[in-house]
Q: What sequence folds into this?
């Protein structure tokens, strides 16, 4: 049973780090939107592609164009932290019980 516990701990650790990196990507993308970088830059395109994967569904679900401010990065970061607290901690605790 300890093998399954180790597997769940490893999955939780990887998920924790992926969520942390994803939050960093979203924050960098939001900060870059303030300075209007060159959209042809490969780094900017990669950040946009990665962050739009989660931001576009939020923008479709909650239209914020009438507000004049895009709050989707804040909602995405809150969702990711909720996922991190709920799913990752649940996996760690489940692994500890096995």
A:
């Amino acid at each position: 049973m300890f093998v399954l516990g180790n597997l769940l701990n490893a999955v939780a650790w990887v998920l924790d780090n992926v969520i942390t990196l994803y939050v960093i990507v979203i924050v960098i993308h939001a900060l870059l939107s303030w300075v209007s970088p060159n959209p042809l830059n490969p780094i900017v395109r990669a950040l946009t592609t990665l962050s739009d994967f989660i931001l576009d569904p939020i923008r479709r679900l909650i239209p914020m164009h009438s507000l004049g401010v895009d709050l989707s990065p804040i909602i995405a970061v809150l969702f990711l932290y909720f996922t991190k607290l709920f799913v990752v901690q649940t996996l760690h605790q489940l692994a500890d019980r096995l």
